[in-house]
Q: What sequence folds into this?
């Protein structure tokens, strides 16, 4: 049992210092993942489970014809380092895809994508 | 990692077979593109990783000879480079043969050397080859039936997420499958007069990722802790190939759930014997699994060489 007890002790000792770091997962987004909005949103907000490294976090948007949509650069909200903001032009109705990749403050990289629809 | 072996079958009480199956827990914290593959409990994940299972508790189904067994396992995986890794595992067992006193002790020590040679992010696909070794005389041979011979098992692991399916079938996109294939080559053809055959081992994990559903397909408003859960069914079989036992098969089917957090995951599965030789009744497995790369991102959680 000694070989089991020792790793537990090491982990317990290390946990408090490790508690601020991990992969950043998408927690929720506005517009919501797979959702539909009545009118063109002005921004896409993506909220993560961990703080982000602004220099290595980005998002892009593609439109109904799978062509890139010209947006502002994605930025990490200075007031909330767990939020990525993508400013949008006025979007015509259609199906849009957000692709993102972020690096959490512990340098772990994650990526993902989701769609939303604009009704009018 | 070491899938159930027929090697030493006669020397090992039959009740030990389900525990051998259940102790082959996988040890990967795997990302490929949008896909996160959890560490499955029965079958291997096709990833190298910095992770540790501590403990893995197994309550085995009753063996075909009426014996009962409980196991407590630990394993640790370490990346040497970003795509080459090793795993070391062992378990403590308590075996209670029917009508006889119980015995306890360590089982055979296992090591695995893996090379994750393929990744395709857009298609959420990955593959890994490796060599599993279970080492002779590292467990309690006489009492528990641990191996008195070394077994080498070349293996192929693979994984595929279905997030690349078209938007017209959104509810299928959270599905993923991982699988393992391996062949056992025991270094002794018999032990105590009993044959140690070559075995063909195969296993699969069928996963439906609620995190993937929430984050990539459709936010259906799942609250904690459900939005971090991955229901799955694992199956694993081992078939003897020769030495008078050809065709004999043992295996289990294990439905369960994994909850994956930021630093660790918790998994639980029922164990259902899939063949008469495996046993009867039901068992269960629970596992606490740590993501060492998240817990120690600047030290132990990094590959030893490179990044």
A:
């Amino acid at each position: 049992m000694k070989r089991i007890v020792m790793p537990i002790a090491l982990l317990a000792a290390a946990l408090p210092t490790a508690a601020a770091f991990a992969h950043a997962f998408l927690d929720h987004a506005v517009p919501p993942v797979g959702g539909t909005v009545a009118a063109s949103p002005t921004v896409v907000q993506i909220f993560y489970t961990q703080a982000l490294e602004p220099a290595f976090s980005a998002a892009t948007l593609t439109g109904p014809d799978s062509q890139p949509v010209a947006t502002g650069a994605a930025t990490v909200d200075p007031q909330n380092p767990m939020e990525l903001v993508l400013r949008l032009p006025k979007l015509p109705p259609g199906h849009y895809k957000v692709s993102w990749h972020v690096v959490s403050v512990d340098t772990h990289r994650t990526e993902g994508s989701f769609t939303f629809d604009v009704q009018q | 990692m070491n899938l159930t072996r027929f090697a030493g079958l006669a020397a090992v009480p039959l009740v030990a077979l389900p525990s051998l199956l259940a102790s082959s827990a996988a040890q990967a914290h795997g990302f490929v593109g949008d896909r996160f593959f959890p560490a499955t409990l029965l079958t291997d994940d096709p990833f190298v990783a910095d992770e540790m299972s501590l403990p893995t508790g197994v309550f085995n189904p009753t063996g075909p000879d009426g014996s009962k067994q409980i196991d407590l396992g630990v394993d640790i995986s370490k990346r040497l480079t970003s795509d080459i890794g090793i795993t070391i595992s062992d378990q403590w067992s308590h075996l209670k043969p029917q009508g006889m006193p119980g015995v306890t002790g360590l089982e055979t020590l296992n090591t695995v050397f893996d090379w994750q040679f393929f990744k395709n992010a857009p298609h959420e696909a990955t593959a890994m080859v490796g060599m599993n070794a279970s080492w002779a005389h590292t467990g309690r041979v006489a009492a528990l039936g641990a191996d008195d011979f070394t077994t080498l098992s070349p293996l192929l692991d693979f994984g595929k997420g279905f997030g690349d399916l078209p938007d017209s079938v959104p509810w299928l996109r959270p599905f993923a499958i991982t699988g393992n294939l391996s062949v056992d080559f025991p270094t002794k053809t018999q032990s105590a007069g009993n044959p140690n055959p070559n075995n063909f081992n195969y296993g699969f994990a069928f996963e439906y990722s609620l995190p993937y559903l929430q984050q990539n397909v459709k936010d259906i408003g799942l609250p904690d802790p459900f939005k971090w859960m991955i229901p799955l069914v694992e199956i694993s079989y081992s078939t003897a190939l020769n030495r008078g036992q050809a065709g004999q098969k043992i295996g289990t089917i294990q439905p369960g759930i994994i909850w994956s957090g930021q630093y660790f995951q918790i998994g639980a599965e029922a164990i259902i014997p899939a063949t008469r030789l495996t046993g009867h009744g039901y068992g269960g497995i629970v596992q606490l699994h740590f993501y060492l790369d998240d817990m120690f991102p600047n030290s132990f959680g990094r590959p030893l060489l490179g990044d």
Notes: The mean pLDDT of chain A is 86. Chain A has one domain: 21-118.
